[in-house]
Amino acid sequence: MKSRSVAIAAVGLIAASAAIELAMGRHPICTCGTIDLWVGSRDSPKTSQMLLDWYSFSHIAHGLLFYAILWLVARRWPVEWRFLTALVIEVAWEITENTPLVIDRYRAATAALGYSGDSVLNSMSDILMMCLGFLAARKLPVWGAVLLLLIFELVPLYAIRDNLTLNIWMLLWPNDTIRSWQTGH
What we know:
This protein is mainly alpha-helical and 185 residues long. It has a domain at 3-28 and 37-99 and 115-149. It has helices at residues 3-23, 56-74, 79-97, 100-109, 120-139, 142-160, 164-172, 176-183, and strands at 38-39, 52-53. Strands 1-2 form a two-stranded parallel sheet. The longest helix is centred in the first third of the chain and has 21 residues, at 3-23. It is globular, with a radius of gyration of 16 Å.
């Protein structure tokens, strides 16, 4: 598959994701009316609304992990097919994550107390962060990708008491002790 075809398919998938989220009633940008580059607070009403926040690192981690998993299970596929597969998975997650069922689950089971879903802008940024992680994993030596993954798990864990691992854990198997630690109680 040629690079141009992959790029067209990728842009199409991302555009389709944006269109679906808009059709679902997601706000294109933060309802506050501004667009910020970075939101540094986990519990800010602007978290998951702007371009980047602490959870952007978890989407880079998605890309690193998708690259590794697809290399293990489909290493004979051209890297372009593996990239598009990772992109389909990420797009599907972003759409699913912004359904009322998952938003309510986040509010009930995780540290995301005031979570109202992503703005379309944030969701598209999350997808691009996954792409960045996938492409980084392709270029980095294995030890570099593993180190990057550890950094993207440990730094947010220290800074906001949350990361990809805890997010998945709390979404699937909520734990009162972890929730209490995450909220500082």
